Amino acid sequence: MKRYLFRVVIFLTSINLFSQTTISGLVKDDKGEPLPGANIYIEGTYDGVSSDTDGKFSFKTTEKGKFVLKVEYVGFDSFSKEINLNNGNIELEIILKETFNLLNAVTITAGTFEASDKKKSVVLSPVDMVTTAGTRGDIYGALQTLPGITTNGESGKLFVKGGNSDESKTFIDGTLVYVPYNSTAPNTSTRGRFNPFMFDGTIFSSGGYSAEYGQALSSVLILNTTTLPVEDQLHISLMSIGGEIAGTKVWKNGGITGSFAYNNLEPYMSVVPQNYDWNKPPESIDGAINIQQKTGKTGKFKLYSSINKSKFSLKRLDFNKMNEMINYDLTNNNFFVNASWRGLLSKKWSLKTGASFTNNIDDVFFNNNHYTESLKGSHIKSVFLHEMNKKVFPVLGVLNHV
């Protein structure tokens, strides 16, 4: 009986040996140099081997039928080839092409650590902005928690590496925002004009940004408006200091998002003691709209606009007459509009273009003095990208007009 079982085992082993397929070959680069240590394997199995110092390899498999042979090597594009395993010998000469990967800058955020290509455009998400301690939902307040930012409690603006706040510029969808902060009295803290939830991608750089943002000396804050919405939405928020309503309407290949808010700090300031003597606490009305529409297969048009009206009145100590108080009344009207388009012009040419307009008016009563400060600014920019090949990253051409 033992002799019979032994013969059966020998017979089955012989069948297994004769039913193997041998896969061998050479792995080299496009210059003909052998690649040692390349990983060669049959996808979905445990059968495989590594190439030797001469780039050669050989292994056997008992698998039958059509399979995919894969070859991988660090710094080169992976190779895939469908082969038919039929108890024979398969010889291959595999040529791998070198791959070129961009090294993306690592960004440190208040709430997350981003290093992947998928999220390389995100520094602070809207949730990070409103949940970072002490920021009160302010974009610029959240950025002040990042390394390299000088905290200036009297201003609320961005001071990077000791520079002036005017040296840090804000861009929405690539175009310049001339007045990103709310107007305020001298030596009184302010905050940003924009609702964090109107944006879903932000880049903040305190150095190393390209000539595309040549108006900035210390840093750039790039705000990208939200991507195309996928469904209709309606949000209503009621607070002790005001309320907000926001909604989204979607149509084929496009959509619109709008928000309207009213804030009055009088209920809050009547309960919480203040360091300033307010005649009339800050009151504001804000509105914003974001329209998006796909154009063709690759193009996308965006229109973003915001309007703001705010006013307040307070008493300040007269520095010329230390025992007397003076009244400072401010009414601010701000309008901002931005339009942008991006898309492919051809297989290797792409275009990003946009224009923005800012109109800001401060109406100030300073005791018996009255003056009006007005700022109107426009910015037009076009960026052309041309991909020459994988070894040379797109050539950047920028046309700026301020």
Account of the 3D structure:
- It is a single chain.
- The radius of gyration is 32 Å and the shape is elongated.
- It contains four helices and 24 strands.
- The protein has two domains: 2-96, Immunoglobulin-like (Sandwich); 107-401, no CATH class.
- The chain is mainly β and 402 residues long.
List the main descriptive attributes of the protein structure presented here.
single chain, 402 residues, mainly beta, Immunoglobulin-like, 2 domains, 4 helices, 24 strands, 8% helix
Order of helices and strands: HEEEEEEEEEHHEEEEEEEEEHEEEEEE
**Cross-sheet strand order for the largest sheet:** 16-17-18-19-20-21-22-23-24
Largest beta-sheet details = 9 strands, antiparallel
Radius of gyration: 32 Å
Strand segment tally: 24
Proportion of strand residues = over 45%
Helix content: under 10%
Average pLDDT for all residues: 79
Distance between the termini: 97 Å
Globally, the shape reads elongated
Summarize the structure.
By secondary structure, the chain is mostly beta strands. It has helices at 2-18, 126-131, 139-143, 266-271; strands at 21-29, 39-42, 48-50, 56-61, 65-72, 79-85, 89-96, 107-108, 113-114, 149-150, 159-160, 168-172, 175-177, 199-205, 219-225, 233-239, 242-251, 254-264, 277-295, 299-317, 325-344, 349-366, 369-386, 395-401.
